[in-house]
Amino acid sequence: GESVGLHLPTLSVQEGDNSIINCAYSNSASDYFIWYKQESGKGPQFIIDIRSNMDKRQGQRVTVLLNKTVKHLSLQIAATQPGDSAVYFCAENVADSSYKLIFGSGTRLLVRP
Amino acid sequence: NAGVTQTPKFQVLKTGQSMTLQCAQDMNHNSMYWYRQDPGMGLRLIYYSASEGTTDKGEVPNGYNVSRLNKREFSLRLESAAPSQTSVYFCASSERVRAGGNQPQHFGDGTRLSIL
């Protein structure tokens, strides 16, 4: 409900450490997953995506892991920087005839200097 | 390259007033979307347009209408605003809906709408 949404899970990490943000997705028929970063007052910004025929994909300082058996997605950020502080959302796309991107409720990442 | 541009950035309305939110993209994308985001929550799809000339309902369409004016522009209209529609509205676009593989959606910076 509303009260759950107002209290985002928060991950606090030391600058330079690695961060791992987790997401449980809801639909076993989902075949495409995206991680977005949202800074205060801004729209979601695409970070990385992965299709269901893969279990790992790497970008610049980020890695996404997909475990379809337990419907779990994670985002790993290497050498976390102050500029990484934001809310991170995972989103899943259900493989049906209509397009639908379902967003998770988000995790707030705080980077301590 | 501006990407997705939304206007206005902020708006305050009284209950019962009407309002159209504008969205334009310059990436030549076929598909466009409207979402709302309530405090501390993820985004919920209101309407989408898979291609020019088509629109479909999303998860929370009640109280809204949309128009895909051309390939670049997709507007969202509130005919009679209600306090429950106080939210931040995001427009997004993507290369195509399906067929051959999904592509990520790219978002504008939102319209912050308050209904008194």
Written account of the structure:
The complex is a heterodimer of chains A (113) and B (116). In chain A, the strands form two sheets. In chain A, strands 1, 3, 4, 8, 9 and 10 form a six-stranded mixed beta sheet that branches. Chain A has a four-stranded antiparallel beta sheet with strand order 2-7-6-5, with no helix packed on it. Chain A has one helix and ten strands; from the N terminus they run αββββββββββ. Chain A has one helix at 2-6, and strands spanning 10-14, 19-24, 30-38, 45-51, 56-58, 62-67, 72-77, 86-94, 101-103, 107-112. In chain A, strand 8 (86-94) and strand 9 (101-103) form a beta hairpin. The longest helix of chain A is centred in the first third of the chain and has 5 residues, at 2-6. Chain B is an all-beta fold and 116 residues long. Chain B contains no helices and eleven strands. The A-B interface holds A 2, 5-8, 31-32, 34, 36, 41-46, 49, 51, 89, 91, 93, 97-101, 103-106 and B 4, 31, 33, 38-45, 48, 50, 56, 58-59, 90, 92, 97-98, 101-102, 104-110.
Level of helix content of chain A? under 10%
Kindly name the structural category of chain A: mainly beta
* Run of helices and strands of chain A: HEEEEEEEEEE
Find the count of extended strands of chain A (DSSP E, 2+ residues): 10
Number of strands of chain B: 11
Biggest sheet descriptor of chain B: 7 strands, mixed
Quickly list its features:
heterodimer; A: 113 residues; mainly beta; 6-stranded mixed sheet; 4-stranded antiparallel sheet; 1 helix; globular; disordered N terminus; B: 116 residues; 7-stranded mixed sheet; 11 strands
